């Protein structure tokens, strides 16, 4: 899943016993979607976790940064029903998408 959000908080970068970086963060999402032909405003907070290089990148983002997150939802722990977004990729909104690197620009009208 992909979602755009604003970084509102984060914990200190920590490491697992195996040396893998872990970053936890809070985000705020605001958008308008169309459902059953009508507009619906969405406004919610979500918690996320990232590992490895993605954790280091997330930890380097300033509070208030608008980012696009890609990842999956999973329970916070084995016994929890509460979901958390596991971020596998992130991009600051307004930065070029690395997947577009090397592609020719679209023709301008």
Question: What do these coordinates show?
Answer:
- With 109 residues, the chain is mainly β.
- The chain has one domain (2-96): Nucleic acid-binding proteins (OB fold (Dihydrolipoamide Acetyltransferase, E2P), Beta Barrel), CATH 2.40.50.140.
- It contains one helix and six strands; from the N terminus they run ββββαββ.
- The protein has one helix at 52-60, and strands spanning 2-10, 14-15, 21-35, 38-51, 66-75, 83-92.
- It has a five-stranded mixed barrel.
- A hairpin with a 2-residue loop joins strand 3 (21-35) and strand 4.
- The radius of gyration is 16 Å and the shape is globular.
- Mean pLDDT is 89; it is low at 103-109.
Radius of gyration, in Å, reads 16 Å
The CATH topology is given as OB fold (Dihydrolipoamide Acetyltransferase, E2P)
- The level 1 CATH classification is Mainly Beta
Helix fraction?
under 10%
Number of strands: 6
N-end to C-end Cα span: 32 Å
Largest sheet composition = 5 strands, mixed, barrel
Specify the overall morphology.
globular
Count of discrete structural domains: 1
Strand order of the largest sheet: 1-3-4-6-5
Estimate what percentage of residues fall within beta strands: over 45%
């Amino acid at each position: 899943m992909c979602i755009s959000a604003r970084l509102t908080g984060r914990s200190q970068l920590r490491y697992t016993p195996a040396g893998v970086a872990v970053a936890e963060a809070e985000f705020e999402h605001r958008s308008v979607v169309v459902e059953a032909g009508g507009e619906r405003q969405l406004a919610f907070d979500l918690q996320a976790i990232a590992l490895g290089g993605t954790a280091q990148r997330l930890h380097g983002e300033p509070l208030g940064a608008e980012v696009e997150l890609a990842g999956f939802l999973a329970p916070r722990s084995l016994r929890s029903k509460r979901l958390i977004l596991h971020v596998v990729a992130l991009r600051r909104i307004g930065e070029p998408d690395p997947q577009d690197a090397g592609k020719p620009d679209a023709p301008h009208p």
